[in-house]
Amino acid sequence: MKTVQLLLAEDDDLDAEALERAMAAAEVTNPIHRVADGEEALERLRATGSDALPRPVLVLLDLNMPMMTGHEFLQELRTDPDPDLRRTVVFVVTTSSDDRDVRAAYDQHVAGYITKSSTGNDFFPLISMLRSYWEVVALP
Amino acid sequence: MGDGVERFDARDERSSNDWRERSAGDLTAILQGVPAHLLATDREGRIEVVSDVWLRHMGYRRDDVVGRRVTDLIEAPDLALADFLSALRQGRALIDAPHDFVNAEGRRCAFLVSAQVPQGAPQRCLLVLVDVSSQREAEAMASRERRIRMRVLESAPDAIFIANASRTITDANPAAVRLFGYGIDDIKGSSTGRFYAREEDFETAGLSRPTHRDEEDDDRARWLYRRKDGSTFVGETVKAMIWDDDGTDLGKIGIVRDVTEQERRQHELEETNRQLTLSLEVLDQFAYVASHDLRTPLRGILHIANFLEEDSSPEVLAAIGPRLGQLRERVDHMDHMLTSLLDYARLGHDRTGREAVDLGLLLDRIETTLRMGGPSPDFTLERDLAPAIFVASETAVEHILSNLVANAVTHHDGEHAHIVVRTTEAGTKLRLSVQDDGPGIPARHHERIFEIFRTLTSGPTRTKRQGLAGMGLALVRRLAIRAGGRVEVTSPVTDGRGCRFDVLLPLEENTKP
User: Fold this and answer.
1) How far apart are the C-alpha atoms of B91 and B192, rounded to whole Å?
2) Cβ separation of A18 and B306 shorter than 8 Å?
3) Less Cβ around it within 10 Å: N or C end of chain A?
4) In Å, how far is A42's CA from the nearest CA of chain B?
5) Interface predicted TM-score of the whole assembly (ipTM), two decimals
6) What's the gap in Å between the CA of B299 and the closest CA on chain A?
């Protein structure tokens, strides 16, 4: 089984570091590719040749980001001419529990919507879920 | 006729005077049988003979009237009666005016009276009466109706025009004179076209004329009119056709009301509404964005605290540990406030439904949640629910109740809080009350407690023990108002202690499931 690559789209350095630390603490060794907004995430996914991101890949997407928000990223991704790109598996990881955000995300066929409580070190349930996910689920 | 012939024969032998005496009997029989209202009197008006028809009409027996003066049966001023008698004496006809005769029941019956002195019987007077009661009643009614119509026209606040089939105004009321500024004589005879500000309106308005009385003629429109001074106004106009009995078009009634001010106000209201909706949207958006964006740095601070803890040696940790704890507490508090702010803002977004709310189940849920959180004082939650199930927005009721119950527990100053949740029907409202036996709230604070971010205790002790953001009651009030109700506070309740919140929610017919 190929190692699942994690593409983390998160504008906040501390949030990103917290997730990385939590992964390390849970002994998850999958590579984490960090980008700061939707545009960078698309660029990373579209890269070819030696820069190409190994597959399979799971996107962990924050919604509230500068330049290109998570919603805009999903919109672009799902209408991309490249079918491989369109079927990318995306989890939304955000502090927003707003119904409109949840609905809009599932409208773009995300695999899951995870609300991080705004305080507390709460990444462990997320990490254990992700680990089970890629052990059980076949990825494109 | 045999009898009559015999009498005729007998008559020959008598003097002329005698003949008259004898023939009176025959005349009496004839007059009594005439199918008309007839009276015969002497020249002084004393009744000698009456027709059966008249007796029946008046309800008299013959004996009631024969021998009485006819003027005794007439209700009129003495002078008029004297005139009547003198006319009788002179044998003059009295047909100029009706006379009111009084019938057996005392009611008046109007008759035109024609008095004749028969030739050959100069001592007598023959009165032929013509019943004009019904005619008089009809006239009286017509006159009453005319007066009512006049008064309606005069007192109507709206301008009323009456125009004939060729659209020439035949009448208008004082309100029309006031509204248009023309004199009444100036209005009468004018074409209705004179009052429209635009000529094409006059033409368009004329097109809607029905050609048959059975056609729908509910003609309502707003037209631009012009006053005498040249100024214009928008008039809401109702027009109704007037048809003759045979279906001839007699013209139209037009009722005009100046709605310029009304239209202006309506536009103003619409604009205000639009602005309000806009600013509410902006406000909601602001609260949503603010609470999300403010969260990011807050999370960052918390992460830093965690990293510091993870990266520190045991010695350093011993020194900074308590400070990190305090820092996390403050972050918690701020986070709680942001959550509440978001909840409050979200009330503007989320559609709240109407469903059957089972208060018993709801309270179970609230109680469980509260006990899980482990609030300082223990509590009992007494229920007195009548009704226990009613139609409302479950989300709203849950928010209201959980806030009120949580408040009652967390603000309690003793070891054990006793809380009573009660529902009663108060007319068209449902009264939902939450009463506690806590310290109570001084009357001077009764309004302030409903403000945003307002708690009566302050400082760090609050965050630890009560963990309150101070949004609960603001939320309760906003939900109650949104549901068409209100919230009231009573404190103290008994012995200078306790507090009761009454939430009144509309209870319509369909709210009873």
Assistant:
1) 58
2) yes
3) N
4) 23
5) 0.78
6) 6
**CA distance linking residue B162 with residue B172, whole number of Å:** 6
- What is the residue-averaged pLDDT of chain B? 82
- Average pLDDT of span B406-423: 89
Q: Can you tell me which residue has the tokens 């990385």?
A: A20
Spell out which residues of chain A touch residue B351, defining contact as CB-CB under 8 Å: none
- Tens digits of per-residue pLDDT, B371-396? 876 656 788 999 998 888 888 888 78
- Residue B484: predicted pLDDT: 83
CATH topology for B353-511? Heat Shock Protein 90 (3.30.565)
Residues belonging to chain A? 140
CA B235 centroid distance within chain: 23
Task: Report the top-level CATH class of B156-258.
Answer: alpha beta
Q: Tell me the nearest-neighbour CA distance from B470 into chain A, angstroms.
A: 19
The three-class DSSP label of residue B50 is: strand
pLDDT digits (tens, 9 = 90+) for B259-283: 988 889 999 999 999 998 888 788 7
- Give A83 to chain B, closest Cα distance, Å: 34
Closest among B119, B117, B121, B80 to B100, alpha carbons compared:
B80
- Taking one residue from A and the other from B, the number of pairs with CB-CB distance under 8 angstroms is 47
Q: Tokens for B480?
A: 């109650």
CB-based contact (8 Å) between A115 and chain B?
no
Which of B22-31, B170-179, B352-361 has the highest average model confidence (pLDDT)? B170-179
For CA atoms B149, B150, B152, B153, give the dihedral sign: positive
Token pair, residue B168, equals 């020439």
Q: Does A98 touch chain B (CB under 8 A)?
A: yes
Average pLDDT over residues B239-252: 86
Cα nearest neighbour of B288 on chain A: A98
A31-85: pLDDT as tens digits = 999 999 899 999 999 998 888 899 899 999 999 888 888 999 999 999 999 999 9
Among B304, B310, B335, whose Cβ lies nearest the Cβ of A119?
Answer: B335
User: Are the beta carbons of B299 and A99 separated by less than 8 Å?
Assistant: no
- Any idea where the domains of chain B sit in the sequence? 34-137, 156-258, 264-345, 353-511
Domains B264-345 and B353-511 share a fold: no
Q: Do A15 and B306 touch (CB under 8 A)?
A: no
The β-bridge partners of B163 are B169, B252
More confident: B354 or A52: A52
- A64 in reach of chain B (CB within 8 A): yes
Q: What is the CATH number of domain B264-345?
A: 1.10.287
> In the CATH scheme, what is the code of domain B34-137?
3.30.450.20
Q: Per-residue pLDDT for B255 more than 90?
A: yes
B388, B423 contact by CB (below 8 A): yes
What domains are there in chain A, each with its CATH number? Answer: 1-56+63-95 (3.40.50.2300)
**In sequence order, what are the beta bridge partners of A32?**
A6
